[in-house]
């Protein structure tokens, strides 16, 4: 039995090491690529470290592309993700609270509808959303991206689960007896206690909105309005290694493209690092019940 247990743990350890190696190698290669020149990237050891001079050259080429288009794209991503995040929190948190802790007609039907909508792929909704926004004359404007991104049924469901399992109804009833209105019960009692789930919904919403590609690609016809994820396609099209006809003054080398990928991920990484405590609290809330 001891040998069998030891063999099982060893096998599990080997499998985990293989998976870590499989996922870690591309990330390490990507981080090292930004420090190399285009020639060193193809000829030198894949896992050798380049130079600071090459990194600065790649940085200057990236942010000098099309007169600073990358800076514009990052700013657009911040506007779209931030605007959608604010609307998501204003809608999802009260909606989840109402579904969990208040009684009204069609409450169960709304909850079922929320679950059904969660199962629909977001790409399947792009065409009807496009037709709807086109009728309203919003195509090409920031609202054509922000409004659809604000529709976040997963956030409503997360909030529903949190409030239905972690907030005692007696506490809210006591606040009502003391004279609080329903709005005051939500803002003064439930919302402060729901800080972990607010942070969790905010994180998932921000990550989804920041990484969204297909919706902005369809809604925004001009590159001036692109977010960074869509802008990466312009960089890819200007890379001779992928598009030989793009060779010229505006061409982008492979290390610069790798740097653009790293830059596009940095905001999400920074948000994750600064919100870990709240994320863990939100994920474990409701796991135990007093």
From TrEMBL:
This is Multiple sugar transport system permease protein. Residues 74-275 form the ABC transmembrane type-1 domain. SUPFAM superfamilies: MetI-like. It is found in: Cell membrane. The keyword Transferase does not apply. Its main location: membrane. GO terms for biological process: transmembrane transport. GO terms for cellular component: plasma membrane. Gene3D superfamilies: MetI-like (1.10.3720.10). The chain crosses the membrane at residues 12-32, 78-102, 109-131, 143-164, 185-207, 252-274. The keyword Zinc does not apply. It is a multi-pass membrane protein. It comes from the Bacteria. Belongs to the binding-protein-dependent transport system permease family. Keywords: Cell membrane, Membrane, Sugar transport, Transmembrane, Transmembrane helix, Transport.
């Amino acid at each position: 039995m001891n040998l069998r247990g030891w063999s099982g743990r060893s096998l599990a350890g080997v499998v985990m090491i293989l998976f870590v190696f499989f996922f870690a190698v591309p990330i390490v290669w990507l981080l090292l690529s930004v420090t190399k020149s285009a020639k060193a990237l193809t000829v030198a050891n894949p896992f050798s470290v380049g130079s600071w001079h090459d990194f600065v050259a790649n940085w200057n080429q990236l942010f000098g592309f099309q007169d600073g288009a990358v800076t514009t794209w990052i700013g657009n991503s911040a506007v779209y993700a931030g605007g959608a995040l604010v609307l998501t929190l204003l809608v999802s948190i009260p909606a989840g609270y109402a579904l969990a802790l208040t009684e009204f007609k069609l409450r169960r039907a709304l909850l079922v509808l929320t679950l059904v909508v969660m199962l629909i792929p977001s790409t399947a909704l792009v065409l009807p959303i496009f037709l709807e926004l086109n009728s309203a004359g919003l195509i090409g404007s920031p609202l054509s991206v922000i409004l659809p991104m604000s529709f976040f049924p997963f956030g409503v469901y997360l909030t529903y689960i949190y409030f239905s399992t972690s907030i005692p109804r007696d506490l809210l009833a006591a606040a009502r007896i003391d004279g609080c209105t329903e709005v005051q019960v939500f803002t003064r009692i439930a919302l402060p206690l729901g800080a972990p789930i607010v942070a969790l919904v905010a994180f998932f919403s921000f990550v989804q909105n920041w990484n969204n590609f297909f919706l902005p690609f369809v809604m925004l016809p001009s590159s001036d309005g692109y977010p960074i994820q869509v802008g990466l396609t312009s960089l890819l099209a200007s890379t001779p290694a992928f598009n030989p006809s793009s060779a010229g003054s505006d061409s982008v080398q492979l290390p610069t493209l790798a740097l653009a990928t790293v830059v596009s991920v940095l905001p999400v990484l920074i948000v994750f690092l600064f919100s870990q405590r709240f994320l863990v609290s939100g994920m474990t809330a409701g796991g135990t019940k007093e």
